[in-house]
Amino acid sequence: MASRIVSGSEPLEFSRALDALRGVRLRPEVRLTEVPAPGRIAPYAVALTGDVVGRDDEDLASGRFVLLHDPSAPEPWGGQWRAVTFARAELEPEFASDPLLGEVGWSWLTDALDDAGVSYTNEAGTVTRVVSESFAGLADRPATVEIEVRASWTPLGDAVAAHLRAWTDVLCTIAGLPPLPEGVVALPGPRR
Question: Cβ of 150: how many Cβ atoms within 10 Å?
Answer without folding.
Answer: 17
